[in-house]
């Protein structure tokens, strides 16, 4: 998983963002990666992965297929 940081026109229509982009939905984000190390509460080193978005082309509204054909 990646965190996505957006600015400006990409976040002006919050309601539309909440409709289109939600956890588990495939999206296309164009931007630059940013990796920041940090210490967890237990003292171990971890890395935070973030994409600084430069654009978010809208994808076709295709339904998600979770475990297609499997029960």
Report strand order across the widest sheet.
Answer: 1-3-2
* Biggest beta-sheet profile: 3 strands, mixed
The SSE order reads: EHEE
The total count of helices amounts to 1
Q: In whole angstroms, how far apart are the ends? A: 25 Å
Radius of gyration: 16 Å
Helical coverage, percent range: under 10%
Mean pLDDT: 79
Number of strands: 3
Q: Assign the structural class, choosing from mainly alpha, mainly beta, alpha/beta, alpha+beta, or little secondary structure.
A: mainly beta
Percent in strands: 25-35%
Sequence stretches where pLDDT stays below 50 over 5 or more residues: 64-71
Please tell me what the overall shape is: elongated
Give short descriptive properties of this protein.
71 residues; mainly beta; 3-stranded mixed beta sheet
Q: What would your notes on this structure say?
A:
This protein is mainly β and 71 residues long. It has one helix and three strands; from the N terminus they run E-H-E-E. Strand 2 (30-39) and strand 3 form a beta hairpin. The radius of gyration is 16 Å and the shape is elongated. The model is unreliable at 64-71 (pLDDT under 50).
């Amino acid at each position: 998983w990646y965190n996505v940081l957006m600015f400006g026109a990409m976040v002006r229509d919050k309601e539309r963002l909440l409709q289109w982009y939600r956890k588990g939905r495939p999206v296309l984000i164009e931007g630059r990666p940013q990796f920041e190390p940090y210490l967890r509460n237990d003292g171990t080193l971890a890395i935070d992965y973030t994409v600084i978005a430069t654009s978010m082309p809208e994808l076709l509204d295709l339904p998600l297929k979770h475990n297609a054909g499997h029960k």
